[in-house]
Each structure stands twice: as C-alpha cells, then as structure tokens.
Automatic annotation (TrEMBL):
<dbReference type="InterPro" id="IPR010218">
    <property type="entry name" value="NADH_DH_suC"/>
</dbReference>
<dbReference type="GO" id="GO:0005886">
    <property type="term" value="C:plasma membrane"/>
</dbReference>
<keyword id="KW-0813">Transport</keyword>
<dbReference type="InterPro" id="IPR037232">
    <property type="entry name" value="NADH_quin_OxRdtase_su_C/D-like"/>
</dbReference>
<keyword id="KW-0997">Cell inner membrane</keyword>
<keyword id="KW-0520">NAD</keyword>
<dbReference type="InterPro" id="IPR001268">
    <property type="entry name" value="NADH_UbQ_OxRdtase_30kDa_su"/>
</dbReference>
<feature type="domain" description="NADH:ubiquinone oxidoreductase 30kDa subunit">
    <location>
        <begin position="36"/>
        <end position="157"/>
    </location>
</feature>
<comment type="function">
    <text>NDH-1 shuttles electrons from NADH, via FMN and iron-sulfur (Fe-S) centers, to quinones in the respiratory chain. The immediate electron acceptor for the enzyme in this species is believed to be ubiquinone. Couples the redox reaction to proton translocation (for every two electrons transferred, four hydrogen ions are translocated across the cytoplasmic membrane), and thus conserves the redox energy in a proton gradient.</text>
</comment>
<keyword id="KW-1278">Translocase</keyword>
<keyword id="KW-0560">Oxidoreductase</keyword>
<dbReference type="Pfam" id="PF00329">
    <property type="entry name" value="Complex1_30kDa"/>
</dbReference>
<dbReference type="GO" id="GO:0048038">
    <property type="term" value="F:quinone binding"/>
</dbReference>
<comment type="subunit">
    <text>NDH-1 is composed of 14 different subunits. Subunits NuoB, C, D, E, F, and G constitute the peripheral sector of the complex.</text>
</comment>
<keyword id="KW-0874">Quinone</keyword>
<comment type="similarity">
    <text>Belongs to the complex I 30 kDa subunit family.</text>
</comment>
<keyword id="KW-0472">Membrane</keyword>
C-alpha cells in the first residue's frame, strides 16, 4: 500500500504541480495515509482531477471538515477526505485558509459537498463561493458565532429557548444557573455536607 501511495503521490505532483504545495505519507500503526496540501483557490480544479483521472478515480467524497489554529496567519486547515473504491485507496486533501478568505465550492464536482460545506460554514465560518445555498445547517438561523472555533466561549453568546407565552423561539443573554466553581483535583474528595432524602431516618452514627 505504501508503494502504491508513493506512486500516486508522484503522479499527482507531476500532473498538478501548480496546485500542490506538499505531499506526505504517514503510517499510523499500519494504516498508511496520503495527505496532499494544495492552494485554496485551486481546490475545485484539483478535486475534479482526482475524481476524473484514470489513475485516481476518487469518486466518493467522504467528508469535509476543518481545524482551527487561532495563532496562525492561515487560521484554518480545510480538510477533504476522498475514497477511490476502484483503486481501493483513500486520500486527504488539505488547504490552509485565512479568516474571511473565500474558498471555491466543490458542489459542481461532488453534489454531496452541499451539506458538508454548509456544516463547515456553520461550525467554523469558512465561506464558499458558488455554493447554491450557503446557510446554517446545525445551529438556529439567528445563532451567533461558530461553535468549533477555539475562541468560541463554552457558554455561547446567547441562550435560545422556546417561549410558550409568546409561541416562538426567543434569544436571551447567557445566564448561568450556578456560580463558577474551581476544582482542585489534587485534593482528596470530601463528601457533601447536606443530608440526602431518607438519611434523616438513619442513626446518627451512620450519618458520619
């Protein structure tokens, strides 16, 4: 498998050298993977090549996701996973994307990319040009922020709930139901100082 991926990597670099920035073959305990890093603007053209080329035939788009690196100039790694059932091979395609950089949609190459790109937009805020319906897919329409960014607060920015009185979804400022608690995990655990229901019937010695 490793030799086949080396050959595939060489063919891709030879035929798509203008789009490819780097290739890497990694062995994860016997599971060998090829990762190709490409220029964001060349994503659609490059994936069309992987789909149609006779030596590749990566006709199945498995997933699109992203990774957030807030400290980098190119903040996001946009990641595509493809499968070639004809060649029995998988490939990962990756592109470094700046915040607010617009990436070409690949819905014209893989129809299944429609919802994948919507999810990446919803969770990370990455924009795709040419997408037929780029709107949120997992969060509510009025949701603020993108939950899988590492600077997104754990509490979120607003609370969303259905208000029976007004018969609609309402948005409210975040209101924590309890104070912030700092846990010292190095100290021994101490039991609760309250009495559970039914414990009042136990002898005093059993409560200690």
């Amino acid at each position: 498998m490793t030799e086949a991926l080396r050959e595939l990597s060489s063919q891709i670099e030879a035929r798509q050298g203008d789009a490819v920035l780097a290739t890497e073959i990694v062995d994860h305990s016997g599971h060998v993977e090829l990762t190709v890093t490409v220029i964001p603007s060349a994503i659609a053209k490059f994936l069309a090549f992987l789909r149609e080329d006779a030596a590749c035939q990566f006709q199945t788009l498995v997933d699109i996701t992203a990774v957030d690196h807030p400290g980098r100039e190119k903040r996001f790694d946009l990641v595509y996973h493809l499968l070639s059932m004809r060649q029995n091979q998988r490939i990962r395609v990756k592109a470094g994307v700046r915040e607010k950089e617009i990436v070409p949609s690949i819905t014209g190459v893989y129809q299944s990319a429609d919802w994948y790109e919507r999810e990446v937009f919803d969770m990370f805020g990455i924009l795709f040009s040419g997408h037929p319906d780029l709107r949120r897919i997992l969060t509510d329409y009025g949701f603020r922020g993108h939950p899988l960014r590492k600077d997104f607060p754990t509490t979120g920015y607003t609370e969303v709930r259905y208000d029976e009185a007004v018969k609609r979804v309402v948005y409210e400022p975040v209101s924590l139901v309890q104070d912030y608690r700092s846990f010292d995990f190095m100290s021994p655990w101490e039991g609760a100082d309250y009495i559970l229901p039914g414990d009042e019937k136990a002898p005093d010695e059993a409560k200690k």
